[in-house]
Design goal:
heterodimer, A: about 300 residues, Rossmann fold, 2 domains, B: about 425 residues, Elongation Factor Tu (Ef-tu), domain 3, 7 helices
Chain lengths: ~300, ~425
């Protein structure tokens, strides 16, 4: 019969590009939520492909907690320059200074939850009606029920029980004033697909994903990087290990794995044999069984 | 290492109720293909213990939202992923109760294959028929009927053969051509990933092998050329000053540079100058590729238009007969207007006539009770403000499908398959 078959990566790419083009066609002020992690890098790469030879028609928005890996910021600035797109920064520090958000206290304090305030304020200030994110359904059980076009009410909230059905290739981005959409072009990708695709397209990613020497402390079964924000407990010891990060979030909550994988090929092999999920090292997801669902309902990424 | 460059993608849907072992089957597929991580399994073990269960309940792996966990049911479509060296699989896991027909329809809309579970002790029941009818209505090309819980009927060949017969008698009324039967025990893993040592009489393939090898290359229409334009790419940069590309996803047929095409609805004709991608021009494009087409002539083309081969065109219609699944808890109001989305175009529409409602357990046509409620499937005629460029759904699932959106709430209220 026919040989009109696509590989799984080609089909996923075609689907994501279709979604990105729908965003341009259906919304007035879309943006890409860019964290500097591999998923938002892949989304940005797909946007570059979707509108080639034109520039990406959306600004990148970075919700900056102030608790970044320095490498992430350097990477972000270089990418923005290369693509010739606008960068908009929403600062969590400013939200704290202006009293819109208040800092958590204690050894495990993080600014993860505070991002929601800054994110919703940034969306409001710039009147974004569609925020494209890199979330994937395989990441977490609350995300498994997420739509490609995910509606948010005027408070930025997600109502998982009242989602619009999504059928075929028909996406409904209709909204009332003040509401917005989160759009997830990578919905159907898995962690493995992302790495295979990064390898296939030779996409540049931050050096943090590759094995490197780093000062770390052992906490909650993971290697947390030592940073200016670390509050050491009496029994905690700083050691140097060869590690790499499987996901990138704030430096205060992102744990690394011991690894010698220093090339994309080796990372793909490592991911293939991994026995733990990638978010297992994320302190933000460990707080309760429904911590992602609860944060998402509030307006989190 | 380079194996991933040969992998294909297969989307399948499962439908089932609490007791027919659907969650156990999915849990089994994920577990036996080593798609479950230790921390996920640990979480499920802890939840099982908290619930006072003696065994780890693999079905908890497919639990989603808080309410679903509290009630022990699936409410919404959940998507699961696993891969083998041959294929990547996307499971649209949908609840099987009649009140969730809308979710089954949603999950079925993009599937290559439907998995139907029959409890070997209970045989073909109402729910089995419902799932098969929905799979057929939604034109899912392949159907796998898993006769489950074979361990509870002593792995008897006679039981399997009888149920196979029963189902075949019923399914002769359906459109589905490719139907396969597999005797399994999801609980014990017989014929799911590994061949059963209890059913040596069964000569067919295991479920996973079937999923890995069934031919899906013809599931898209590669005959009738259809290219709905999504957006126009005009870089306006020095390097691409006069570039004007029509971006979209091929919905059918094979497009090549040099092809004579007609732009619909305007009727202008032109030729394909090039088919562009980020990695450069390509020599042919087919569904479901996302591409950009340049034409040799400067004709007016915008979103909602369709490029087709001049000698093979869709029909252009304003009065359209559809099978409609109503998705919303408010019934349609008489003469109400809706927004209609079809490929990349959007028009207004109203439901002109309700011809009959379909009983999705028996295929019986009800012409008496014509009030449409949530989860009903009905044959209706709609009228649109502007003509649509349509194909029958049986011929093309992309150019043959549409949705209706409520003008006031913007909720998606109906899904339609063009007859």
């Amino acid at each position: 019969m026919s040989n009109y078959n696509l590989t799984h990566l080609a089909e996923l790419e075609a689907e994501s590009i279709f979604i990105l083009r729908e965003v341009l066609a259906q919304f007035e002020h879309p943006c890409i939520l860019f964290s500097g992690g591999k998923d938002s890098i892949v989304v940005t790469h797909l946007a570059k492909k979707a509108f080639h030879p034109a520039k990406i028609p959306f600004p990148l928005v970075h919700i900056d907690t102030g608790h970044n890996f320095p490498e992430t910021l350097l990477f972000r600035d270089r990418l923005v320059q290369e693509l010739g797109v606008n960068l908009i920064i929403g600062s969590v520090q400013e939200s704290i200074d202006s009293g819109r958000a208040s800092e958590e206290r204690g050894k495990n304090a993080s600014r993860n939850a505070l991002q929601t305030v800054t994110l919703l304020d940034t969306i409001d200030t710039h009147q974004f009606d569609a925020c494209i994110g890199g979330a994937r359904r395989d990441e977490e059980k609350a995300r498994a029920k997420e739509r490609f076009f995910s509606h948010r009410d005027e408070f930025g909230q997600w109502d998982p029980k009242n989602q619009r059905p999504e059928l075929w290739n028909l996406f409904n981005g209709k909204q009332h004033h003040g509401e917005h959409f989160r759009v997830f072009p990578l919905s159907n990708w898995t962690e493995m697909d992302i790495w295979q695709y990064i390898l296939l397209d030779q996409i540049t990613i931050p050096s943090l994903y590759f094995s490197h020497q780093r000062q770390v402390i052992r906490r909650h079964n993971t290697w947390l990087p030592l940073s200016e924000f670390t509050q050491l407990a009496a029994n905690e010891e700083v050691v140097t290990k060869k590690i790499r990060f499987r996901t990138l979030g704030d430096i205060t909550i992102t744990g690394g794995d011991e690894s010698t994988a220093n090339t994309l090929e080796k990372i793909v092999l490592e991911v293939a044999s991994a026995r733990q999920t990638e978010r297992g090292n994320r302190e933000d997801d460990k707080r309760s069984e429904t911590s992602m669902e609860d944060r998402k309902k509030q307006g989190y990424f | 290492m380079s194996g991933y460059l040969d992998m294909e993608l297969l989307r399948f849907t499962t439908a089932g109720s609490v007791d027919d072992g659907k969650s156990t089957l999915i849990g089994r597929l994920l577990y036996d293909t080593k798609s479950i991580f230790e921390d996920q399994l640990e979480q499920v073990k802890q939840s099982s213990t908290r619930k006072g269960l003696d065994q780890t309940d693999l079905s908890l792996l497919t639990d989603g939202l808080k309410d679903e966990r509290l009630q022990g049911i699936t409410i919404d479509v959940a998507y699961r992923y696993f891969a083998t060296p041959k294929r990547k699989f996307i499971i649209a896991d949908t609840p099987g109760h009649i009140q969730y027909t809308r979710n089954m329809v949603t999950g079925a809309s993009t599937a290559n294959c439907a998995l139907i579970l029959i409890d070997a002790r209970h045989g073909v029941v109402e729910q089995t028929c419902r799932h098969a009818i929905i799979a057929s209505l939604l034109q899912i090309p392949h159907l796998i009927v898993c006769i489950n819980k074979m361990d509870l009927v002593n792995y008897q060949e006679a039981t399997f053969e009888k149920l196979k017969n029963d189902f075949t008698n019923f399914s002769s009324k359906l459109d589905t051509k490719d139907i396969r039967f597999i005797p399994i025990s999801a609980l014990n893993g017989d014929n799911v990933v590994n061949r059963s040592s209890q059913m040596t009489w069964y000569q067919g393939s295991t479920l996973l092998y079937t999923l890995e090898t069934m031919h899906i290359g013809s599931d898209y229409n590669h005959i009738d050329c259809r290219f709905p334009v999504q957006t126009v790419i005009r870089p306006k940069s020095d390097a691409y000053h006069d570039y004007r590309g029509y971006a979209g996803r091929v919905a059918g047929g094979v497009f090549k540079p040099g092809d004579e095409i007609t732009v619909l609805p305007s009727g202008f004709t032109s030729k394909i100058k090039s088919i562009d991608t980020f990695h450069g021009p390509i020599q042919e494009a087919f569904a479901p590729m996302s591409i950009t087409i340049q034409l040799t002539d400067d004709v007016d083309v915008s979103r909602g238009d369709m490029l087709v081969r001049s000698n093979n065109q869709p029909s252009v219609q304003q009065d359209i007969d559809i099978m409609m699944c109503w998705l919303h808890n408010q019934s349609p109001k008489p003469k109400a207007k809706y927004l209609l989305k079809h490929t990349t175009s959007e028009v207004k529409a109203m439901i002109k006539e309700i011809r009959y409602k379909l009983d999705i357990n028996t295929l019986h046509r009800n012409e008496q009770d014509l009030e449409i409620r949530m989860n009903d499937i009905a044959r209706v005629q709609i009228r649109t403000t502007k003509p649509l460029l349509i194909d029958p759904y049986k011929k093309n699932r992309i150019t043959g499908s549409l949705i209706l959106i409520d003008e006031a709430t913007y909720q998606t209220v109906a899904a339609g398959m063009i007859i």
